[in-house]
Design goal:
The N and C termini lie close together (9 Å). It is built from 16 helices and two strands. A two-stranded antiparallel ribbon has the order 1-2. It has two domains: 2-185, Growth Hormone, Chain: A (Up-down Bundle), CATH 1.20.1250; 202-387, MFS general substrate transporter like domains (Growth Hormone, Chain: A), CATH 1.20.1250.20. 75% of the residues lie in helices and 1% in strands. The chain is mostly helical and 398 residues long. The protein has helices at residues 9-29, 33-40, 44-72, 75-88, 98-128, 135-158, 163-181, 202-231, 242-265, 267-287, 291-305, 308-318, 324-353, 355-366, 368-371, 373-377, and strands at 2-3, 188-189. It is a multi-pass membrane protein.
């Protein structure tokens, strides 16, 4: 597949809007979960199965998107994914039975998964035509979109707007963003000989495993950090969410500044030192006897981990041992699997060695990032682009 080689600000804007819509749409659903449970009158077990439909839809679509993007490019998938999210979001508020909500969640997850893969493929192409790294900034927009979406839906619900009205308003904003991005997205020339499936090679598998570890850590902190802080007696129950809040803020700030740092230091240093900072954050969190020190641990984990995934996606998009679209789909799917199994795996380990022991396990797993930094970022004959200098970010489009 060949790509319109361009370094126009419009293409960057379109990519940022795609990431913004992705984070925004997912966050719009989160405040609606209690309403869905009350409307259907289901217990926690049924609700958990319904939420699993979203994940299953996402994973299935990620696999299909990798195949389709290799043949048709990322632009039509971004458009379809973004508009599909906007159209299905209000349906989540009016589904009247568990079956219909499950179908709606699966469709919503499918559109989200396809957008997730396609926007990362598009981001790689845009970055290739630039003279500087851009991936961290794109991923920061996903986090900012999540914050805006959650805040907006919460505000609309708090002033008396019903779930359906709130989601219709949010859907309208998403449609506007996609319409603005539409003509600015990169056009690609389909490659007739692009395979629809390729078994991930060893290098891509390494990237996928590292992505899974990073997403696993993020998901575990989301679901277990409050319980860790409260059971350790560091904060009371009402303040348990402060840990994840600080982690999320640090993650977003780290990504907003990550491109400038990567341009100066390179991907290897970003992975090496970022991974070490995150591991040190775990040590500070788990050994601190007072709350303020423990909270600084969350900041360190967020800052350190913030730019690991952007590096992994960049390397997946620039290697040539398999089609970039399929590689990014594999990395995305495996990373998402880490989010899905992370909370459950932490709970399983905590049952045997306690919650602090489970967090030590996360710290040990995250050591893989700095340990593999040299392997992931090494220049290779197979075509992975090196990023040790600023100039290495210049266009490699054909």
């Amino acid at each position: 597949m060949t790509t319109q080689s361009t370094n126009r600000p419009e293409t960057r804007l379109a990519t940022r809007l795609a990431f913004l819509v992705g984070g925004f749409s997912l966050a719009c659903w989160a405040p609606l979960v209690p309403f869905a449970k009350a409307r259907l009158g289901v217990d926690d077990g049924v609700l958990g199965m319904l939420l699993l439909c979203l994940g299953l839809g996402s994973v299935a679509a990620m696999l299909a998107t990798g195949m389709l993007s290799a043949r048709y490019g990322s632009k039509p998938i971004i458009i379809a994914g973004g508009l599909g999210l906007a159209l299905t979001l209000p349906l989540l508020t009016i589904a009247s039975t568990p079956f219909t909500l499950g179908i709606a969640l699966a469709a919503f997850g499918a559109f989200l998964g396809s957008l997730d893969v396609a926007m990362n493929i598009h981001a790689v192409e845009v970055e290739k035509s630039s003279d500087q790294p851009l991936m961290s900034g794109f991923h920061a927009l996903f986090s900012i979109g999540g914050f805006i979406g959650s805040l907006l839906v919460t505000l609309l619900l708090s002033v008396g707007a019903g779930p359906f009205v709130a989601t219709v308003l949010c859907a309208a904003l998403m449609i506007i963003a996609i319409v603005v991005a539409w003509p600015r997205l990169l056009k690609t020339v389909p490659s007739e000989d692009a395979p629809l499936f390729a078994i991930p090679r060893s290098f891509v598998m390494l990237l996928a495993i590292l992505a899974a570890i990073t997403f696993l850590v993020e998901g575990a902190i989301l679901d277990w950090s409050a319980l860790l802080l409260t059971t350790q007696g560091l904060v009371n129950t009402s303040h348990g969410g402060l840990g994840y809040m600080l982690f999320a803020i640090a993650m977003t700030i780290g990504r907003l500044g990550g491109d400038r740092i990567t341009a100066k230091l390179g991907d290897k240093a970003m992975m090496l030192w970022g991974g070490l900072v995150a591991v040190i954050g775990f040590v500070v969190l788990l050994l601190s006897p007072i709350a303020i020190l423990a909270m600084s641990g969350f900041l360190l984990i967020g800052f350190g981990a913030s730019n690991i995934v952007p590096v992994l996606f960049r390397k997946g998009g620039t290697q040539t041992v398999m089609p970039a679209g399929l590689a990014i789909a594999a990395i995305t799917m495996t990373g998402y699997a880490g989010v899905l199994i992370g909370p459950a795996s932490v709970g399983f380990v905590a049952d045997h060695v306690g919650l602090p022991g489970a967090f030590w396990m996360l710290a040990l797993l995250f050591c893989a990032a700095p340990f593999c930094a040299g392997v992931v970022t090494r220049n290779r004959d197979q075509g992975e682009a090196g990023t040790e200098t600023h100039a290495s970010y210049r266009s490699v489009d054909t």
